[in-house]
Amino acid sequence: MTERPAGLRERKKQQTREHISHQATRLFLERGFDNVTIAEVAAAAQVAKMTVTNYFPRKEDLALDLQEAYVQGPAVTVRERGPGESALSALHDSLLASVAAHDPVIGFSGPAFARMVAGSPALTGRLREFHDERERALARALAEETGTTAADIRPRVAAMQLGGVLRLLFEETQRRTLDGHPDEEIARAVTVQAGEAFALLEPALGGYAVR
């Protein structure tokens, strides 16, 4: 059975996107994010400049190409939590699994990449936008899962608390990476910190958004 044309097109588009991102990241790491142009990325990837901007409307997203997974991850976790499980518990378990896997989405990016991001105001600013977008996406998911509206303050407060912990642990992972700690050591430390942080939220959110 041959692959359907639509499926083949989507796969080729994804391959093109990944190729562009790979070439961009290579150039950024070699020369610094702010010293590379979109035209140079296009030349390295052997595509038109318009092709690059079609896949990545903002230059920052060429480097931070895991945006979708980062922004939507907690909301997806909440929507897919198991019976009897709270949003708090589901997010804690998901984070621990990501820490054990040294997932780059939660900050295990390697020292060279971490330095590149830390050294670019444009990239650090874009990361802050991702944090805000993730919090809003999580608030929407919590509102849906608890049968409230987007105007209700409770899912927004819960999203701020949960998102704040996730952001703090991301930043801690990046800080330790920049300080030269190996991933295994970072994972052990962040696992302990995650346990402490989620325990602090337990009195307020342990019984919230239980499926």
Structural commentary:
It is a single chain. The protein is an all-alpha fold and 211 residues long. It folds into 2 domains: 58 residues, Homeodomain-like (Arc Repressor Mutant, subunit A, Orthogonal Bundle); 139 residues, Tetracycline Repressor, domain 2 (Orthogonal Bundle). It is globular and about 55 Å long. The model has no long low-confidence stretch (mean pLDDT 94).
Features:
single chain, 211 residues, 10 helices, Tetracycline Repressor, domain 2, mainly alpha, Arc Repressor Mutant, subunit A, 74% helix
Q: What's the Cα radius of gyration?
A: 19 Å
- Given the helix and strand composition, which structural class is it? mainly alpha
CATH class of the largest domain: Mainly Alpha
In percent, how helical is the residue content? over 70%
Principal-axis shape: globular
Number of helical segments with 4 or more residues: 10
> What is the β-strand count?
0
> Kindly state the mean pLDDT as a whole number?
94
% residues in beta strands: under 5%
Amino- and carboxy-terminal Cα gap: 41 Å
Please name the CATH architecture of the largest domain. Orthogonal Bundle
List unreliable stretches of 5+ residues.
none
Largest sheet, in brief, is: none
GO molecular function, one term: DNA-binding transcription factor activity
Keywords: DNA-binding, Transcription, Transcription regulation
Protein name: TetR/AcrR family transcriptional regulator
InterPro entries: Homeodomain-like_sf, HTH-type_TetR-like_transc_reg, HTH_TetR
